[in-house]
Amino acid sequence: MVVEPTPLSANNPRIASLRRLSGRRKARLEAGRFVIEGPVPIAELLAAGADLDELYVDLDQWAQVDDRSPLRSVVRDADAAGVPVWGLTASVFASVSDTNSPQGALALALRTVTPISDVAQIDGPVLVLVDISDPGNAGTLVRAAEAAGCAGVVFVGSSTDPFGPKAVRAAAGSIVRLPIAEGSEVSPALDELRSSGRSLVATVVDGGVAPEATDLSGSVAILIGSEAHGLSAEVIATCSAKITIPMQSAVESINAAVAGAVVLFEAARQRRNA
């Protein structure tokens, strides 16, 4: 059976709601929903069992693609899952899209957050992002954490919204497969992890030991600090170990997402060999 999106008027209240959810963290928190864009990431969320409320399609792009396209495929999958599919004109779709080149599909999904205490009890390292401001880095780290076998990711301090559009695009299906926790205050979150028996490991630009020389095979929480300033001295002081990635040449530091991935996969290597 051919599935066709149901056209929506530009004045439909759903459009205004989409704009708020795409652009405002507060709106996402209040609604308990987030927006994910692109047929491939949406298909990955559907395959991961995400609770999608609605799917929106650019009707101009819809008319230009064939049945084998990712756009047509994700519409069929959404319809089969009982998700309402709505159609928007190209101009309206562009007005709610967070990207410069909209990919023709966006969806509303349930914003699911796991308590820090629950994440702490799951087997595997916990990744803690402290004041990470770049959503692309945040999403990449969530995806790397899942790939490296982490128990979950904890966002604390002034970190970006893990369910913001850019972070979700970078994390893709990992944002719903991997437990995500949030804490506005850093110290209580770290206390929670420490009280569960986890050792806190700080990543620092200098003064630490190499990842391979640190025992990461046990119950650890790995902390990554802000892109601009790293972890504060106060946070570092609460950690039982410090890691510095050895680098050659004149390179002083690397991207937070790259640094985090290096440490996470070293932890995965150690766990495999334990």
UniProtKB/TrEMBL annotation:
Residues 35-115 form the RNA 2-O ribose methyltransferase substrate binding domain. Belongs to the class IV-like SAM-binding methyltransferase superfamily. RNA methyltransferase TrmH family. GO terms for biological process: methylation; RNA processing. Keywords: Methyltransferase, Transferase. This is Unannotated protein. The keyword Cytoplasm does not apply. GO terms for molecular function: RNA binding; RNA methyltransferase activity. SUPFAM superfamilies: alpha/beta knot (SSF75217), L30e-like (SSF55315). It comes from freshwater metagenome. GO terms for cellular component: cytoplasm. The keyword Methyltransferase applies.
